[in-house]
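CORE FACILITY INTAKE
Project code: CF-77B
Contact: R.S. (postdoc)
Sample description: multi-component assembly, two entities in total
Requested service: structural model of the whole complex
Turnaround: standard
Below are the sequence entries exactly as provided by the requester. Do not edit them.
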Amino acid sequence: MYKTRLWAVRHARAFETLYNLLEKSLVKLHPIMAKIGYSRLEKPVAAMEQLCKGVLFDCQMCGQCALSATGMSCSMNCPKNLRNGPCGGVRQNGHCEVKPEMRCVWVEAWKGSQNMQDSQQIFAVQLPVNYAIKGRSAWLGKVKEIVQYQEPKSK
Amino acid sequence: MIFHDEPVPGKMLPILEGHTSAGRLERVLRAGHFAVTSELAPPDSADPNDVFARAHVFDGFVDGMNATDGSGANCHMSSVGMCALLTRIGYAPIMQISCRDKNRIAIQGDVLGGAAMGVSNMLCLTGDGVQAGDHPQAKPVFDLDCMSLLETIRGMRDKGEFLSGRQISSPPKVFLGAASNPFAPPYDFRPHRLAKKIVAGAQFIQTNYCFDVPRFKEFMARSRDLGLLEKVFILPGVGPMASAKTATWIRNNVPGIHIPDAVIKRLAGASDQKREGQNLCVELIQQLREIEGVSGIHVMAYRQEESVADIIKRSGVLQGRTPWYPGRDQQHFAESTQK
């Protein structure tokens, strides 16, 4: 919902803390999840993720969440799917060129990011979206990525 | 400026040291000259002579011409098609690539095709939304955005590989450009976005119409603070407005264009509004030239292309330099033997 989405951006800092906590707990759960099997978990976790993030951020399930780099404003709600900042068409009142009734996703993102602890993440260049993983759980994807990164170190 | 190795259509100039392309635009900018580029509106026709005639009006006044890619989301001849025609007779087009109509497979193919035809400059754009143009029913693609497009082409050029990692046997040697709009919110993020574009591979920047000089100065000052001005050539955009009515219409209907009230008032108060629009354009060029970090000017004179030569002449920015055009040197030769 549009209003909830704007509310979430206003509380970007709180969601950042919550997200960091969630990430840490999920990483800790990795041994259990690995035992159950990630492929088996994929569907239910993705469904849960879609529900939570759908209500809060109007999540589009791109499968590669960038909320922490976009001030908790989901950039896939931009009609141009911009992942790296606002286009030049933003109206003088801060609304979208394509949907005049909507505030620009990136005007919101910039506001949200500046309230976050890690306000620098918005400056990182985001890679092209991988449409092959659209619809999959970004949370599980992130956990697998972190674990893969840690494992060679511990060996 | 005359290069000792003048271009022969169909043959590439050598790539000089420290340059990434063989193009004249990069050479002019790196040599420290004030560069002039202009917007070449594509015809709604399949006649090559329509393209040549439109390019011809800029002869001797521009270092590069932007072959637009469905600007304003309106359908015209494609930028690749225009570049194919222009490079045939030696012009130096800036091939615009918009992310609105093509996915990464089509775009990378066009980059190779364009470079093979002799296109040395490519401008990476996100593109206007389809709602702005004559086909609002079209499916917007936006597979990449301008930033990932820059990175993609830079990867093709510097790493010699497609986005997929597959090898390219002869990489496209291009000078990469991007757009910037300092006049749209969020203003304090705009210099940071410029920084991101530079990181992603932008070597030159063309901006949207610049009528608000104080705001542009502020943008440049912030960009200087971020250390960006040494890393990129910035060409602010200007253009003559035909009348106060046109300016008002553009302000209200074209996304991302900011025209202050003072400009519209000045146009409305003039007896010859068209002439006043051109005078204002000349003044803007002269003011912008003085700002630190401005390396050239980009003239967008939609439906007034014939006025560009006069505007550039009056602004004095070329300082006696005659940018190359087909037949320039024969002309010089004829003039020098007559004397």
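Facility notes:
- The beta strands of chain B are 35-40, 64-67, 93-98, 121-125, 175-180, 204-209, 233-238, 296-299.
- Residues 24-338 of chain B form a domain with the TIM Barrel fold (CATH 3.20.20.220).
Invoice: internal transfer
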